[in-house]
Design brief:
Structural class: mainly alpha
Radius of gyration: 23 Å
Oligomer: single chain
Number of strands: 0
Number of helices: 7
Shape: elongated
Largest sheet: none
Strand content: under 5%
């Protein structure tokens, strides 16, 4: 028999279900559903099958909930405000100017090319996965490489 995860008794089963059903966001609903199902005796495999979340992410949610309580559930990205933007205002303006021209090797701008340019400006490696301003790169480069623009 699979070992069951222990859920700290911060909230009753009824309160977990209520918060799951009345959640304001999909992420918050999923998080409460996972804790509610596990608190109700479901195995991790059963919760994975119902929610589509991975075992590792379920363990992360449980760990946060057991240590911090309900405040750990829901989308916490809005609290990631401590970090300065990767590019300051001047560097963002420079990037916009650079994107008005074709990239050095021709073709269209892409995430890798923008990250390479940013690495030169910042003097440190910038991973192309940062996606800082990159969502608009193809739109800008398509417009600047279109005939008549």
């Amino acid at each position: 028999m699979p070992k069951r995860i222990t859920i700290a008794p911060h909230l009753s089963m009824e309160e977990l279900e209520t918060r799951f059903r009345q959640a304001k966001t999909t992420t918050q609903a999923h998080h409460y559903q996972i804790i509610w199902l596990l608190a109700g005796g479901k195995t991790t495999a059963e919760v994975m099958a119902v929610t589509g979340y991975s075992r590792g992410w379920i363990y992360e949610l449980v760990s946060g909930y057991n240590h911090l309580g309900p405040e750990s559930l829901g989308d916490q990205r809005c609290q990631n405000t401590d970090r300065d933007p990767l590019l300051n205002d001047v560097e963002q303006a420079q990037l916009w100017q650079v994107l008005q021209q074709p990239p050095p090797d021709g073709g269209l701008w892409n995430g890798r090319k923008v990250a390479d340019w940013m690495s030169e400006i910042k003097g440190e490696k910038v991973c192309r996965l940062h996606r800082v301003g990159i969502s608009q790169v193809n739109e800008i480069s398509t417009k600047s490489s279109s005939p008549g623009t």
